[in-house]
Amino acid sequence: MIRFEDVTKRYPDGTTAVGGLSFEVSEGELVTLVGPSGCGKTTTMMMVNRLIEPTSGRILVGGEDIAAVDPVRLRRRIGYVIQQVGLFPHRTVLDNTATVPALVGWKKAKARARAAELLELVGLDPATYGPRYPDQLSGGQRQRVGVARALAADPPVLLMDEPFGAVDPVVRAQLQDEFLRMQAAVRKTVLLVTHDIEEAVRLGDRIAVYGQGRIEQFDTPGAVLGSPATPRVASFVGADRGLKRLSVTEIEPGDLEQPPVVRPDDPAGRAAAELRARGARWAVVLDDRGELHGWVGAEDLQGGGSVGDQAHRMSAWVPVGAPLKQAFGVMLQHDAGWVAVLDGARFLGVLTPAKLHEALRRSVDAEARGVARAEVPFDSVADA
Ligand SMILES: Nc1ncnc2c1ncn2[C@@H]1O[C@H](COP(=O)(O)OP(=O)(O)OP(=O)(O)O)[C@@H](O)[C@H]1O
Ligand SMILES: [Mg+2]
């Protein structure tokens, strides 16, 4: 979908920002460009929408050499989230989001309806936030508007320059999660710049690790972490690979344990007997559709009534597919011996520290054998 063929950019003052770049991003793939400040990431990105012209080499988007495409027409197909968000301060959030559709001639009502839909998609209620101005938003909310605006004309290609750069780590992780969820639904072809290796690993299907003006390694997160191609990549990736692996290994349904299940309208006495029979100290409370209502401890059930009356809210939970690191963080935060794993509202099971360790081992073993983790059946390594 995006193809660089031996692309070099030399600025008039003689600085070679990038030299001899060749790589390809497939349709629907998310590639992160990561590297130290000044290594040429923004330059690479801005050549794709012709805000910067290469000195030599060719760039193809959707098979077309972009040198021959009218830049304005080209940019309609390419959403762009710039490094400093860059919202228009004197326009409302809704109008900011509708900028591109309005530019390309959509009717006002249609452009605004689309903008509202996108605000919804990035987790901002259009009725609340649509009429506000950018300075009435938090940093994280502004970044969400930046992403919504870039998606507004539904471009197949998205360029994102440090889209989650200007917020604290907690909000950043939240924005990353939301973005991954959205990307799973819209499947854009994305080039995303970051200088944070953790973010690159977390978001990228593949990662391009830059040295000065060139790509040192272009591969999957597992390969970059597991076998860095050059000393520079190794030092950039850092020594604490085990910890970083926590952030690339996703929780899979096979990793989970199944605690006893009770229903909200079960009488407490019957539920207590069930727990005793299984030697369990607590159970999850699920309704008939398998949706989670909370959890209940054996002691809670002494009081009588129904299970629903005694249930506690489940605060220690993560979505399925979340990285192990997130589950570990939630465990520490809630001082819990387990975290619930949900698929939407549906309860899948719980992750315990022992299972977390097993999952980590599975991931390291898969790497050592040079297989992608999706190809490794859980059973084959469960006792490794
Ligand atoms: N207009 C320009 N004229 C001359 N040199 C430039 C120009 N724009 C960028 N450069 C240089 O090109 C190199 C690459 O810049 P670029 O903006 O692509 O880096 P970056 O990887 O995005 O860095 P950062 O992480 O700090 O945003 C730097 O050395 C920069 O100083
Ligand atoms: Mg930059």
Automatic annotation (TrEMBL):
Pfam families: ABC_tran, CBS. Residues 251-314 form the CBS domain. PROSITE patterns: ABC_TRANSPORTER_1, ABC_TRANSPORTER_2, CBS. InterPro entries: AAA+_ATPase (IPR003593), ABC_transporter-like_ATP-bd (IPR003439), ABC_transporter-like_CS (IPR017871), CBS_dom (IPR000644), CBS_dom_sf (IPR046342), P-loop_NTPase (IPR027417). Residues 2-237 form the ABC transporter domain. Keywords: ATP-binding, CBS domain, Nucleotide-binding, Transport. GO terms for molecular function: ATP binding. SUPFAM superfamilies: CBS-domain pair (SSF54631), P-loop containing nucleoside triphosphate hydrolases (SSF52540). It comes from the Bacteria. Belongs to the ABC transporter superfamily. This is ATP-binding cassette domain-containing protein.
